Amino acid sequence: MQAQERKQPLAGKPPVVNIKKPLNFTLTNGLKVMVVENHKLPKVTFNLTIDNPPFLEGNKKGVDELCSSLIGNGSTKISKEDFNEEVDFMGASISFSSNSAYASSLSKFSKRTLELLAYGALDPKFTQEELDKEKAKSIEGLRSQEKSVSSIANRVVNALAYGKNHPSGEFTTEETIASITLEDVINNYKKRFVPQNAYLAIVGDVKYNEIKPIIEELFGSWQKTTVNAISYPDPKNTEVTEINFIDVPNAVQSEISVVNTYNLKMNDKDFFPAVIANYILGGGFNSYLNMNLREAHGWTYGASTSIGAGKYVTSVRSSSAVKNNVTDSAVVEFIKEIKRIRTEKVTTEALENAKAGYIGRFVMKAEKPESVARYALNTETENLPADFYENYIKNVNAVTKEDVMAAANKYFLIDNSRIVIVGKGKEVLPGLEKLNIPIFYFDKYGNPVEKPVFKQ
Q1: Where's the Peptidase M16 N-terminal domain (predicted)?
Q2: Tally of domains in the chain
């Protein structure tokens, strides 16, 4: 009996995603409100986001993080104990940060949940006792990461890629945390938790005409202040590919990161080609990097690439943790795969799989209230077309092989990338030196140092 030829099933029709449009209004203080009614389930979510530009904290780095930790620890309107007791009774969830607040609850408790969110966000109670606790926890966390190769890598990669005088490149230290006072935290809150850059997205079982007066009552007295946007010079990529090496003698693996910076906005015409190229290079399990370093060679548990997009300068980073004895070989394979996506057209199968994976994730998320809120917020803050998410699947499917290659050449700048390696120099440097790639040496905080000398 002759065996039948196996064929891949034909792709079905693209799924149709129905993303509801919000009803909008703006308070006199500048707070923009977006309400999406959805009465399928008796639930409601509230997402308050403050879209402030990045800012440099300098020798007070960590003040914004401490501000995040302290918001929600009580309010001048209600005690911390009573607040938590009410939240538990309603089965609600409420959380805060220095630039956001989130709450979800059954719709029958929506008014009280929103009141408690407003109390915590607009009338926080900052105390020296709570600040001391959070500072101690932060310093303890820094000490616990002192010898963590991955923590060192995350810190140094950003410091070198952006520069330590850029908001995305600075990092906390014990000294910066210790220098922060209660007045610093309060001033940070007053200066940046402001309504003119704020968006409140409400999704769920609420009625626009009923929730609108409640919002006006709770948030109408929120005072706006002046927020001066400070511009920072864009970081510069390297002139040629170079290795930035950080010696960590206790490292049992090497953390390798290939990174370069760029600008990519969500409303750019090559946004979709760029994210598909990223998915093919390192965004999915079957990506070039993962199939090479993990599946073909068995050097790592996983290799991946992350790509940023938004209003401000961002970066693309390909990374993996590999065995010490294959560090130099892994660097060769990173370079090979990044050059491959820049010089070879992807196969039809790889492109279609990437599109299917990307669309699948989008479809799974699209019905979730937090996603609906995020889409409404992105449309406003990223200056997206009103039909951006309605056309999302169509735009993904429109990406061609040529588009992928063009985006890879524009954003995966392997000839101007830093290959940041955190590892055990005594074991890995001899192999790296044979690659004929310039090597520069740095300490665990991104400061230039001389090449380490090892005892025989």
Answers
A1: 33-166
A2: 2
